[in-house]
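Protocol step 4 of 6: structure prediction from sequence.
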Amino acid sequence: MKLNKTKTLDNIVIDGGLIIRPSREFSDSIASLASGESQDVLLEIKGFGLGIITPMPTASVTVDCFEEITADDTAEFRLILTKVILQ
């Protein structure tokens, strides 16, 4: 059974590393998203995070929709100025 999600609200939280700008939390909304589809969210992050001096940066994503469905995931990444390398 495939469900269509409407009016999704997503929240992204960055932990670890040294983030220069913007803040560590981002929010966005997507009008609709069908089951199995994905949506890119552009984040302009600047900072450093290699997991050497500070903990390895992680991005935690939580998506909620009006149909009361919630999904979340976390990924580690390396950050050098504006270049992000997902682990």
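Step 5 (inspection) to follow. The mean pLDDT is 76.
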